[in-house]
Specification:
There is one protein chain. By secondary structure, this protein is α/β, with parallel strands linked by helices. It has one domain. It is 27% helix and 27% strand. It has nine helices and 21 strands. α2 links the parallel β4 and β5. α2 packs parallel to α3. It is globular, with a radius of gyration of 21 Å. Bound molecules: zinc ion.
């Protein structure tokens, strides 16, 4: 209603003012390490990287309308472990003047990118240097995206991809009882939606960015790999930018993939002979092709502003001994970021949530499209569903959270989405 009134006022009083419409700017910056680094994500990998399979990038999409901003950043990395979310975010916020709720800093969860750390005591010096340089590059990427704000039209769409599969395989233990191992469980109902957002510049509908979110671990390369790579999400981003032209920025985001792995993992060697397509390339290309198929089928723009954002630190029940500070406390925090651009909502979860949690948020969201980003603005650990605790398995064992945390997170996200809807006429909320 407000948007209609504002548009009418402009129409009556003079030429349409572009400043009242939705604007966006995009940027891409190379973050491939220039020296050997420790790669993140597998405890068994003890040596430095031995080369680069494919380059890493940071990609930013900045939205602005009526002074409200929302900046979505995707980096080709595992995530913000070793307490790196806060310093990286602070550097960006201070340099850009963004409010904390306006920044979604997310990682695609590739396990073939540098471990982030600013801890010179514990981290490898090359990784500390890498993280410091990354900090400056992220500041630059966000500044560049904000500098290029110009009118934009956005459309949301949806596809499906078989690249990810539930990894909680049921086997029998020595006593013949069922147990969960990391494997493949295709019979588990899984949300395989490929969420796609297209940004085009009027009046010619020139494509400027394609953003996508998909739920799988980017781990097709496995723990024996020592080459830097964006893995599935990174290769999908690279495929899209090659296919659509290098002026288009294609940031990828990991959906709710705590219990989702790639359908196939790489064979011991990268094989290219006898028609073999290496697994990361096969699956990254499949995912990228689905994104391209979705945008090519989209018709016209669907939504405009307003932009609203919310940032909450949710205290979730944790296991005994896993409290964040005093042992008497029974909770741990998880950063929850919420944003909307018109009828499109974004939910950023600062942890590694199970597929069912993302599905529950999307299904009950009051918005037409609700994108789920994990590894966003924090790294609180695995958040399983309540039902999975009874089954056990790696994620449940390594999660700091107690049963019920996932369901509380769903409620907090849905409440936040309802607040964003309501705040159309209440610009106080930030
Ligand atoms: Zn993971």
């Amino acid at each position: 209603m407000l948007a209609v009134c504002a548009g009418l006022a402009v129409g009556l009083n003079g030429p349409p003012a572009r400043a009242t419409g939705l604007r966006a700017g995009v940027a891409r910056i190379d973050i491939t390490p220039s020296q050997p680094v420790m790669l993140a994500g597998y405890a068994s990998r003890k040596d430095l990287s031995r080369g680069v399979h494919d380059p890493l990038s940071a990609r930013a999409v900045a939205f602005e309308q009526d002074g409200q901003r929302l900046v979505l950043v995707s980096i080709d990395n595992l995530g913000f472990y070793n307490r790196t979310a806060e310093p990286l975010r602070t550097a960006i916020l201070e340099a850009s003047g963004l409010k904390p709720a306006e920044l979604f800093l997310s990682a695609i969860h590739t396990h073939s990118a540098p471990t982030l750390t600013l801890d010179a005591e514990k981290g490898h010096s090359n990784n500390v240097a890498y993280t410091r340089a990354l900090q400056a590059k992220l500041v630059e990427a966000v500044r560049k995206a904000l500098d290029q704000l110009a009118p934009v039209e956005i459309s949301a769409g949806s596809g499906s991809s078989p690249v990810g599969v539930n990894r909680r395989e049921v086997v029998q233990d020595d006593a013949g009882k069922p147990k969960i191992v990391l494997g493949r469980n295709p019979s588990s109902p899984t949300d395989r939606e490929v969420q796609v957002l297209k940004l085009a510049r009027p009046p010619e509908a020139e494509l400027v960015a394609v953003l996508f979110a998909y739920a799988t671990h980017s781990t097709s390369l496995g723990p024996k790999n020592y080459l830097v790579s964006g893995d599935i999400h990174g290769l999908a981003e690279q495929f899209l930018e090659r296919y659509l032209g290098s002026a288009v920025v294609a940031p990828g985001f990991a959906g709710a993939s705590g219990d989702i792995d790639p359908w196939v993992r790489v064979l011991p060697e990268f094989r290219t002979d006898k028609g073999w397509i290496p697994e990361p390339i096969l699956m990254g290309t499949m995912l990228g092709e689905e994104v391209a198929r979705v945008i090519e089928g989209m018709k016209g723009s669907t939504t405009n502003g307003p932009i609203k954002t919310l940032f909450k630190t949710v205290e979730l029940p944790c296991k005994p001994g896993a409290a964040a500070s005093a042992p008497a406390e029974a909770t741990r925090p998880l950063n929850l970021s919420l944003g909307r651009v018109g009828e499109v909502a974004f939910v950023g979860l600062g942890g590694e949530v199970f597929n069912g949690i993302g599905q529950a948020i999307k299904t009950a969201s009051p918005f037409r499209s609700t994108f789920i980003f994990t590894h966003c603005n924090g790294a609180a650990g695995y958040v399983p569903t309540r039902a999975s605790y009874a089954e056990g398995g790696y994620e449940v064992q390594s999660s700091p959270f107690a049963p019920g945390a996932g369901e509380q997170l769903i409620e907090a996200a849905l409440q936040g989405l309802r607040d964003l809807q309501w705040t159309v006429s209440n610009p106080q909320t930030e």
